[in-house]
Amino acid sequence: MKFKLLIILAIILNTGCKQDTTKDIETTKNEIKKEWWKEQVVYQIYPRSFKDSNGDGIGDIPGIISKIDYLDSLGIDVVWLSPHFDSPNADNGYDIRDYRKVMEEFGTLEDFDTLLNGLHDRGIKLIIDLVINHSSDEHKWFQESMSSKDNPYRDYYIWKPGKETNPPNNWPSFFGGSAWEQAGPDGEYYLHYFAKKQPDLNWENQQLREEIYELMRFWLDKGVDGFRMDVIALISKPQNFDDMDNEGLKHPEYTYAYGPRLHEFLKDMNKEVLSKYDVMTVGEAYGGNAEKTLEITDERNNEIDLAFWFDAVRVGRDNFKQNEWTLPEFKKLVKAQSDVNSHNWPTFFLGNHDNPRVVSKFGDDSPEFRVTSSKLLAMLLLTQRGTTFLYQGDEIGMTNYPFTSFDQFDDVEIKGNYNKIIASGSTPESYLADLNKMARDHARTPMQWSNTNKAGFTSGDKTWLGVNPNYPEINVNNNLQDKHSIFHFYRRLLNIRKGNDNLIYGDYKDIAIDHPQVFAYTRIGKNKTYLVVLNMSKSMVDFSLDNKFKGYNLIINNLNDDTTTIEHNKLTLQPWEARLYESN
Ligand code: ISL
Ligand code: CA
By its UniProt entry, which SMART domains does this protein fall under (predicted)? Predict the structure, then answer.
């Protein structure tokens, strides 16, 4: 009988609505257009901290090449490489001196090609970091621009006369001090939202835009699969340069971001460059809000594909303060960023090179719960709706670093804001305490490969930033040897997600958004539903489930290899327990 029904169905499908079938294949229930970059899991590499191949204590591209098999065995689809370009490293590469040259410490263009081909040979794509809101002040463009008002490159940057001996206005830099620096023979000031060695480019200048399009084509013609675009929402400057009021000064990003010509610039870049390649673009929409971010990623606007939303990852953050936050608060932010209309596609991440370690912020990095909560966060990251971004080291549960003094830090943001923080009444001790919760350098300590000297990151006896003293226990080798490790849990989840349209495209529904301890949601696909239940607390909890989940099968959990079926609607969850069920 069943077989007869199938035949009839096939005939109907074949005859009646051929187009419909393709249409069905192409879209899920809510008409999402399928795109390869919606189905990928991206692994971010911070090259300075990944693997050193020549013993100078600084990570480099040959070091990454030596770990391509490791990345392949993990099962990620795309590598996002933080800036690898020639740079004097005022902000660790986010200050580019030559956009067509590889940073000396990192290697050569040949090394870059070897990395690209090595990844492609294993079916892994590579996106690079496009830092085009600002350049280095050592870039020849700026050297020319600074040399005189009449220099043809003058207008590649934003110069303004000061007021008597003061800068043009009271705008602050994100890295402390004024956003203006006086330079050159004419005594004018140039704008720098970040460090003095990161002058902002003037996107109003057509010729500059053409030059940027050219350097983008340089890398795309090499076969690079796309760009992560640094602070892309800042490239169109405000038209009015009046002083900010106190509110404005607290969050200058809201004044600096989403200037009047941003859409025009992104559309032009798309038309002139991006539309000519099958690539992915993800913008760092720092300074935006949901509505504005959705405009630049709406597929109907032909600007960029994806954007990083910072609300969830920065829950509880108030500048340099990491305040307490509640799970319902976090869940509502996650819901907001995944509940986008069908012309948009979310991104999901919990960490990167600008934020503390995920297990230390969102999990519990104590010896008792570090492994269990790291696995729970793996399940959260890999069952969310949106293109997922992982950060190097989270797949082995690396934690924040125990900083005890300021000279252990490297980050320009921390050093640059020291005076301001102290002047605002904070003490060095409390600033250090804050930094031990939210400093960017937590994410930048060298990758921990083994329990040997310097965690196997380098064969040398020094590293550019301290190795976390917990490396003898927390390292890749230990993870590879233990099949119940965090690494192998990530690998299993990546396997479950790969090519799984129900989990990738399925609708997202939080089923207990006000629950103080449990994060539980469903992913409702075309022909299968997944139920994710996460106890994000260190105490046991009984969690009630709707009857409709009876019969769902447990396919993976972070405590044991149990694969039971839901028989009754009360689950007793251990501390930091995570379960993934699928419908029958
Ligand atoms: O992450 C931040 C807060 O902790 C911001 O400080 C950060 O500067 C902002 O998100 C923009 O970040 C990007 O541009 C910066 C660079 O320092 C960051 O590493 C990069 O991700 C300037 O290029
Ligand atoms: Ca090196």
Answer: Aamy (SM00642)
**31 within domain boundaries:** no
Q: Please state at what angle helix 206-220 crosses helix 262-272, rounded to 10 degrees.
A: 40
Q: Are 519 and 557 in the same domain? A: yes
The contacts found for 448-451 with CB under 8 angstroms, 24 or more apart, are: 448/393, 448/396, 448/398, 448/474, 448/475, 448/476, 449/51, 449/475, 449/476, 449/477, 450/475, 450/476, 450/477, 451/475, 451/477, 451/478
Mutational pocket test of ligand 1: of 46, 91, 286, the residue with most ligand atoms within 8 Å of the beta carbon: 286
Asked if 106 and 226 sit in the same domain, the reply is yes
Based on the domain organization, do 161 and 231 belong to the same domain? no
pTM score, whole prediction? 0.94
Q: Same domain, yes or no, for 77 and 148?
A: no
Q: Does 329 map to a domain?
A: yes
> What CATH number is associated with residue 573?
2.60.40.1180
- Supply the pLDDT for residue 9: 52
Mutate which of 201, 231, 308 for ligand 1? The one with the most ligand atoms within 8 Å of its CB, which is 231
pLDDT, position 170: 97
Q: Are residues 254 and 158 in the same domain?
A: no
- Is residue 174 lining ligand 1, measured as CB closer than 6 Å? yes
CA dist., res. 52 & res. 33, Å (int): 41
Encode pLDDT of 311-358 as tens digits: 999 999 998 999 999 999 999 999 999 889 999 999 999 999 999 999
- Which residue ranges in the chain fall short of pLDDT 50? 11, 13-28
- 263 φ/ψ sector (left φ>0, alpha ψ -120 to 50, else beta): alpha
Domain count, the chain: 3
